[in-house]
Amino acid sequence: MFLEERQKAILAYLDKHERCSVQYFSEIFKVSKETIRKDLSTLAKQLLVIRCHGGAMIKRHRLVSNVTDKECITSLMTRYEKQKFKKLGDRMNGNVCILGSFNVDIVAQVARFPKGGESILAQKSMIGPGGKGANQALAASHADAKVHFVAKVGTDQFSQFAHDHLSSSKINSFTLYQSDKEPTGNAVIYVSEENGENMIAIYPGANLTITNKEIVMLESYLKQSDILLVQLENNIDAVLNAMKLAKAMGVKVVLNPAPYSKDIQQLLSYIDIVTPNETEASLMSGVEVNDFDSAKLAAEKIYSLGIQTVIITLGSKGSLVYDGKHHQHIKPFLAVPVDTTGAGDAFNGAFCASLAKGETLYQAAIYASAFASLAVEREGASNMPSHQNVLKRMANI
Ligand code: ATP
Ligand code: RIB
């Protein structure tokens, strides 16, 4: 077998089995261990595998600058619809695919929010990873799901920052596309020390440039996924096509409609579960949501748009789950909030992880509530608690 062919075969094997020994490949390909070691070193230099004692592991973390032509989204969907390909919804395996944003968060901690025209001194400032997509992917991986995350960044220095952050996280695999036209997204955030509340201005940049070809590439990950989780920080056509593809493949679709956009109308028929916060629920339903009763009304209105399950998050008041029959109030877990930025992201990621692992809607919402209550006690939107600590908090009530 030629060198190139052998290396392709090694990658294909590792893609499936994640890890393998030098000895194994040397026996399979009938070449010396030294030859295999050289192969693995070449692949490691290309950042495709990680060498480990006696062998290698696949590196599923890829920074991709160009996608070659592939089947178009419509023909792909038709193929799945014709095949009547359906995943077994009752056999959830804990796999969550997340398409979403990556932003660099520039955070100023202030005693109170400044008024228009006023300059104030910040008590603290930090630059860290963020973006609703990346935060939700991190939350889902901390909640012990197997996560594949897809996002798009620029070619600036922040793309490496994104890559380093995701590579060192618990996220199982990710694909980071790069735009040479738009910079990596960023968010300027004020966090008030008064109550941990925040104000955010987002510049989405490369997050708005996801192409159809890049969505087509989701197919292989969706095949293995129980749930697709999306938000509204990417271009709407990309979100729509990802949802359509997931639906055609029988994958459950969860939309966190944040930040709210009128474009959501186009997405309605592809949503299984929608998770607005109070503001987004008000805008979706036309009912001003500020307590559990108004949330009930809003959830009914949103349900009547054709969405089977509505979960409205109500900040420190907990959340409401509505499935067309029952309104269930998920009580908040007691927390001492330090920074509520990303509370919704923590909730969404943890909820999808729990649902994908086979929990009921109600149980998954309780788990997400406990998870988010721990997240608001930590500084930074991407600072997620561990699964063990969530279980402890749930056991303490
Ligand atoms: P953000 O936009 O800041 O990411 P959000 O508005 O999308 O947040 P929220 O509704 O504020 O999301 O919060 C999501 C969930 O987090 C709530 O449903 C609740 O379970 C939990 N949570 C938020 N704030 C608190 C708090 N102060 N105490 C306990 N739990 C909280
Ligand atoms: O939900 C919090 C996130 O919203 C921040 O990380 C910021 O990047 C914005 O996307």
Automatic annotation (TrEMBL):
The residues that hold substrate are: N103, V104, D105, G131, K132, G133, A134, N135, E233, D345
**GO function terms (MF aspect):** ATP binding; DNA binding; DNA-binding transcription factor activity; metal ion binding; ribokinase activity
Give the residues annotated as active site. D345
Task: Please give the PROSITE patterns that the UniProt record associates with this protein.
Answer: HTH_DEOR_1 (PS00894), HTH_DEOR_2 (PS51000)
Q: Which cofactor does it need?
A: Mg(2+)
Location within or outside the cell: Cytoplasm
| Enzyme class label | transferase
Catalyses which reaction(s)? D-ribose + ATP = D-ribose 5-phosphate + ADP + H(+)
Q: What's the EC number here?
A: 2.7.1.15
**SMART domains found in the cross-reference section:** HTH_DEOR
For ATP, which residues are the binding ones? N277, T313, L314, G315, S316, K317, G318, G344, D345
> How the cofactor binds, per note?
Requires a divalent cation, most likely magnesium in vivo, as an electrophilic catalyst to aid phosphoryl group transfer. It is the chelate of the metal and the nucleotide that is the actual substrate.
Quick check: keyword Cell inner membrane in the entry? no
Q: Which domain of life is it from?
A: Bacteria
The protein's UniProt keywords, in alphabetical order, are: ATP-binding, Carbohydrate metabolism, Cytoplasm, DNA-binding, Kinase, Magnesium, Metal-binding, Nucleotide-binding, Potassium, Transcription, Transcription regulation, Transferase
Keyword ATP-binding belongs to the record: yes
What is its quaternary makeup?
Homodimer.
Q: What's the stated role of this polypeptide?
A: Catalyzes the phosphorylation of ribose at O-5 in a reaction requiring ATP and magnesium. The resulting D-ribose-5-phosphate can then be used either for sythesis of nucleotides, histidine, and tryptophan, or as a component of the pentose phosphate pathway.
Per the record, the similarity remark reads: Belongs to the carbohydrate kinase PfkB family. Ribokinase subfamily.
What name does the UniProt record give this protein?
Answer: Ribokinase
